[in-house]
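assembly run, all chains below
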Amino acid sequence: MSAFTDVTEASTTTTTVPGDAPLLAVRDLRVWFDRKRQEPLKAVDGLSYTVDAGRARAIVGESGSGKTVAARAVLGLLPGTSRIVDGEIAFGGRDLRSASPEQLRRIRGREIAMVFQNASEALNPTLTLERQLTEHLLWHRICSRKEAGQRAIQALADVGIPEPAAKLRMYPFQLSGGMRQRAMLAVATVTRPKLLIADEPTTAVDVTVQRQVLDLLQRLKDDGMAIVMITHDLGVARAFCDDVTVMYQGRQVEEGPIRQVIDNPRDAYTRRLLESTLEVGHEH
Amino acid sequence: MSTDAAELAVSSSSGPSSLAGRGEALVELRGLSKTFQTRSGPVRAVDDVSFDIARGTTVGLVGESGSGKSTVARLLMALQRPTAGEVRFDGQDLARLRRRELRGIRRRMQMVFQNPYGSLLPHFTVGTNIIEPLRLRGEGDRHGRREIAGRMLETVGLEAAMVDLYPRQFSGGQQQRIAVARALVLEPDLLVCDEPTSSLDVSVQAQILRLFEELQERMHLTMLFISHNLAVVEKLASQIVVMARGKIVEQGPTTAIFDGPQHPYTQTLLAAALPVRSDTSAYVAPASARAWVPERLAEVPSELREMAPGHLVRVEL
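ok done. output:
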């Protein structure tokens, strides 16, 4: 219909982004929340980052630093009281900021997917796993209903859920917390999106489940998926991500390769964050 | 008087299954079990758990969700009745106490929960929240209590002038400080903390842990500190109890557990902790640990054996 849809179709058939442009490029993003009789709250105040296919970027910072808002802005999933006042969001060469809600819907769940912190809240309690796993495939008309069922089983198997075919008929409450987290990851990745935005995907799970989830994300990354991981856990960032952006009070205070930033933090806040971080077997 | 000699005498008489090591135990859990009846059959949430908490020390209770940690805490606080076994607080078996006696004991044991906002009364001011335990017990007058609330706020690193504010006006870390202030207002002997820092940011977590360390020193608090975060218990606890599937799999001095974990489950937990400042984990689990699954605890008979003084490890029979 429009030129936009043509580009969408073209980019789904070719796996690489034209030229050397990164898959996702956010430049000088500013997101404000309007408030009554007060200055607007500058939740994100000048954030720039890029992510390439097969790479992972961590966005770290404490709660309220703007990391979740920064990630949601990419998907056009900002709360109604907020607005993007400035900046660019380019995904696969397309400008997402000027995309219409309809165009964004065609991208969400198909090319960009999101994983949330709390699987119990993010999954629909009234639908079986099958309905939730096939929803994106059917809505985006990626495949037939029959094939969608097969892909759903495969997606559950991929995230290490035993007896995936039997689990399809289950509701989220019938699964343990770790299983639910993995099922949500399966829902997000069943369409093989090019970009996965993961908001604290391991914060609510046990350490051993955390390892499993990270191994899973690693496999997806090795297959070429780009990942933006929002976390306040520097251990997770170091284990999994290539690059890191440190946010503090809406501003980007440091950015760079993860090891370089952790081993040689230049910003005072990054240093403080590192000092606060406890780790096993390390002199506290 | 030589305190060393006294400690030695107590520790040698307290037997091999004692975690106390030094000083008399404030809390003794003996063969504690709790079975819940569910629609899918009975669930043994806690299965034959025994350990001591010596006065003035902190025991770290670790394990994954569903391992029975919080049930142990509730049994210890006499909020639930054990199916078998006993909880002794200061030598008294809680199950044998009358309601009024239990009420007397309860003021000596207080709890701090994971979600500070959920555990504070939202329609009460911070001051009213803090003095609620005093009011319920009819202690002090209105004026005196208000003063105490102010003092408690200062104890936990906030300002006395904040008494008239409401919980929602505070950050998560400040709310947890308020919850700690309320737990301490009755000057308890025992503080049971159930994942008190898990919902907090790392920098705030560090502040709250520093607060607990200060309180340990200043008030000689005895604590049971429940956490799934090994780095947190390593910092605070002198003794560690590791639980899985309702059973203790390993217990002993913190240094022994962290330097030489014996049970495959402890080894897996330690190996799963992600390093921040280096590329390699502080601890790498042997191949045998990776093959072990918690289901074995239900399938294979096992018992706790003392491998070194005070260091108990569950071995399969």
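Chain A is about 40% helix and 25% strand.

The CA atoms of residues 118 and 204 of chain A lie 7 Å apart.

not gonna interpret more than that til we talk
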